[in-house]
Write a structure and sequence with these properties.
Layout lengths: L7 E2 L7 H11 L9 H17 L2 E2 L2 H18 L8 H28 L25 E3 L2 H13 L3 H4 L9 H15 L1 E3 L10 H16 L3 E6 L5 E5 L1
Parallel strand pairs: 1-2
Antiparallel strand pairs: 3-5, 4-6, 5-6
Helix pairs in contact: 2-3, 3-4, 7-8
């Protein structure tokens, strides 16, 4: 199997273009009423290019947003005429919709955090399983783009030798999912980094990440992050 033999559609996972903008605003601690268009456009396009290199197809709405950002950026580079107000244009096309989306997203997250009847009743976990659970108060849900940032760090830590893959036999995404399921059935959860411990080539690292995304899409796992340590864990559902 080659790296291009399997592709994941971003639309099938769980986040869209507005989520990426929210991620960039929070990551760079930007003022939502004074968004630097040049920075946000360059960062947005860089994410789309990275997704393309790891065989993830972006949905059409991501490309529409990219076109909008490029248009706003290009208008800022042109001379401003008296009858034009670029700041109002940016607020109308970006800041206002983004602010409304963040309000809706925040409300949805608060609703999701409400415990259902009996959800906080725990039984003794089977021997060998991790004691941590997705319901722990110090665990927070990880978004797609936070997960991508963590994956970028995994790739950056690969040596030059690991970037070149000369092995003839390749595993499929389905096979990698089966391996991850075996680990999670035994332990209940595992850290994000632990899943890449045995991946010694770039193609293997990408394969593991694509398998994780497929498992999220199939609702086999829940991805959480410890608020204090920042460690990302995958829980088997």
């Amino acid at each position: 199997m080659t790296e291009t033999a399997y592709r994941v559609k971003l639309a099938d996972i769980f986040e869209g273009p507005m989520d990426l903008l929210v991620h960039l605003v929070r990551k760079h601690e930007l003022d939502i009423y004074d968004i630097p268009i040049s920075l946000i456009t360059d960062q947005y396009l860089a994410y789309l290019e990275f997704l393309r290199t790891i065989n993830i197809d972006v949905a059409a709405e991501f490309l529409v947003m990219a076109a909008t950002l490029v248009q706003l950026k290009s208008r800022q580079l042109l001379p401003v005429h008296d009858n034009e107000n670029d700041e109002d244009e940016v607020e109308r096309q970006l800041s206002r919709p983004l602010l409304e989306y963040m309000k809706i997203k925040s409300a949805a997250e608060q609703l999701a955090e409400r415990h259902l009847l009996g959800e906080d009743t725990f039984t003794r976990p089977p021997a060998g399983r991790d004691l941590l659970t997705p319901q722990d108060t110090e665990m927070v849900t990880v978004g797609l783009f936070e997960l991508i940032d963590a994956f970028k760090k995994i790739l950056q830590n690969l040596s030059a030798e690991q970037m070149i893959d000369l092995t003839a036999e390749r595993m499929s995404v389905k096979d990698r999912i089966s391996q991850i399921v075996t680990v999670l059935e035994t332990r209940g959860s595992t850290t994000f980094e632990e899943l890449f411990a045995d991946d010694h080539q770039r193609s293997q690292v990408i394969l593991t990440f694509l398998a994780i995304l497929e498992m999220v899409k199939m609702r086999l796992i829940k991805v959480m992050q410890h608020a204090q340590s920042g460690i990302i864990r995958l829980f088997y559902l």
